[in-house]
Amino acid sequence: MSGPPFAFSLLRRREAILPTWRGWLVLVILLAAGARGFLAWVHPFLAVTAPVGGEILAVEGWIPDYALRQALKEFRSRRYARLVTTGGPVPMGMAFSYQGNYARLAAATLRSFGLSPDSIVEIPSPPVRKDRTFTEGVAVAGWLKKSGFDCRSLDLFSFSTHARRSRLLYRLALGKGVRVGVFAPLDVDYDPDRWWTSSDGFRRVTDEWLAYLYAALIFRD
After folding, report:
1. What is the mean pLDDT of each run of 10 residues along the chain (221 residues)?
2. Longest Cα pair distance anywhere in the chain, in angstroms?
3. Class level of CATH domain 46-217
């Protein structure tokens, strides 16, 4: 109900329904349970591993050495036809910037681990200020078209919480004719089951969650 206007008809009293202390308690419990559920759900959601057994294993070149070793193991055990490394320019001043781009850096590292040079294809992408992962996917799509490689499915070797967003953007770049799977080796710098207790884990999960929402809801190719 509302009362008559007052203060030169600028204000009006209205009746409002508010929770009792029991109601507030229930709301707090529900919010706490929802927050706890989100904390447990979001990391495995982002760091998804779901390979499709494709003809090609595409490796994001910026991932750490221990993840590249896991990529080499998967390449050998699943008998892919090719391993392609992707990535744009390595920023000047960083270690190994002399390699020029992450695709070349990852390929050199994999060769040092014993992978035959005949099995590796470097697919560098051009420098861009945003949407780097999508640009990498476009470069892979361009190579597939130029080489005439009949690729119906591809597995992407990404890293930790970056994996779901990478798979989404590669799917957009490669089109509906190519199925895209993904691997997500875990980040050893924090405990994935308690990521919020680490500054590295908190930063990476929150950054990737926001970036995934942008890619899923706003990004257009």
Report:
1. 72 85 92 94 97 94 96 94 94 78 95 94 93 96 92 95 97 94 96 96 97 93 73
2. 85
3. alpha beta
